[in-house]
Design goal:
single chain; about 250 residues; alpha+beta; 434 Repressor (Amino-terminal Domain); Umud Fragment, subunit A; 2 domains; about 25% helix; elongated
């Protein structure tokens, strides 16, 4: 077993998720994933110590300087998890966390309360009126849901710029339902455009040109248009969940 294998095995034996271990060690969720997949091979001494303490093992065992512990009884879920790629493992964990919110599926554990559902990805680079890429492989952190998290939100991202004011303010965090299902004209969406990510209202004109529109009546300059013949790739990453539908933009 490698150090990554031992971290993963000890975490599973302790019944912890990667997110929970990250919180105990004081690192990002993505760091634990890298440790367990041996993407980081030279761990700092303080990191090894923190991991060992959180997992209830010795640093020497974690670094493969001691003999392996007796193998734990195999679980049915382990080969299913191991057969998946990174995206599949994340999706399996996401669905497992969802099941953990259901009274009819959750094991009876006194004192364990999951009131708002599984953590939600928060992408760390602001979108716009600005630029970011909340797509597979980009940097994010998992944050806990609370009473302010809209039902149906799949991820959240911060907004950089004033082109959606007064409805969405510069620096405000928005919550997004992934995909374009249910997205009507002039709804607000998060759009990936040739490397840029934009938060805009949208519509199509009679010629089939896609218009991404600013809600701010003074920011018509930030509008973007994409004729069918432009050859540019525009992908809707999701619908921004707002308390009410925005009016059609009107510029001064």
């Amino acid at each position: 077993m490698t150090t990554g294998d031992r971290i993963r095995a000890a975490r599973k034996a302790a019944g912890m998720t990667q997110t929970e271990l990250a919180e105990r060690v004081g690192v990002k969720f993505s760091a634990i994933h890298k440790y367990e997949t041996n993407m980081v091979v030279n761990l700092k001494r303080e990191t090894v110590t923190a991991l060992a303490e959180a997992l209830g093992v010795s640093p020497a065992w974690l670094m493969c300087l001691e003999e392996e512990k007796p193998a734990a009884t195999a679980r049915e879920i382990d080969p299913i998890y191991d057969a998946l790629n990174d995206a599949g493992q994340r999706e399996l964990c996401r669905y497992g966390r969802y099941l953990g919110t259901r009274e009819d599926y959750r094991a009876a554990e006194p004192g364990v309360i999951i009131p708002f559902g599984p953590p939600i990805p928060h992408f760390l680079t602001a979108a716009a009126a600005g630029y970011a890429a909340p797509i597979e492989g980009q940097d994010y952190e998992l944050i806990e849901r609370d009473e302010s998290t809209p039902v149906g939100a799949d991820f959240c991202i911060d907004i950089d710029g004033d082109s959606m004011e007064p409805y969405i303010r510069d620096g405000e965090r928005v919550y997004v339902k992934s995909g374009s299902t249910g997205l009507r004209e002039f709804d607000v969406g998060i759009f990936f455009v040739d490397g840029d990510v934009l938060c805009k209202q949208w519509c199509l004109d009679y010629a089939g040109t896609l218009h991404l529109l600013s809600a701010n009546p003074r920011r018509e300059d930030a509008n973007r248009s994409f004729p069918k013949s432009s050859g540019q790739n525009v992908v809707c990453l999701g619908r921004v969940l707002l308390p009410h539908r925005l009016p059609q933009p009107s510029y001064v």
